[in-house]
Design a protein that fits this description.
Length: 117
């Protein structure tokens, strides 16, 4: 099992959520966040200066079976990409154990109902 965490532009979040749903990833958590990147430039749009380091972001987190890692990453990459600085990041980490509290199921079975394998 892997934990996937992504930081994406707030304006791209609904598209990312829809793309993950189409990739059969229906359970995820998200938070609206602000952060600071490495870009040291500003953006001027219609005479208003914007600091691109503090553009609103959404932090997304979910756990998937190993077989769903690549399609999850590809779903995020496909819709979150703009080609500009500040598109975000994706992090993948190993999950040692998962337990469903209600049933006591462990491992992959804790993520999906048994008939969904």
């Amino acid at each position: 099992m892997k934990k996937i965490e992504a930081i994406v532009r707030k304006t791209k979040f609904e598209m990312v959520r829809k793309a993950l749903h189409e990739a059969d990833i229906d359970f995820l958590s998200w938070w609206e966040v602000k952060g600071q990147g490495t870009a040291k430039q500003g953006l001027i749009f219609r005479g208003i200066a914007y600091d691109v380091n503090t553009i609103d972001r959404v932090f997304i987190s979910f756990v998937v079976r190993d077989i769903n890692v690549e399609k999850s990453i590809n779903a995020i990459l496909k819709v979150a990409y703009t080609g500009e600085s500040g598109d975000g990041r994706i992090f993948v980490s190993e999950i040692g154990q998962s337990i469903r509290i209600r049933t006591g199921d462990h491992g992959d079975e804790s993520l999906y109902d048994k008939e969904e394998k």
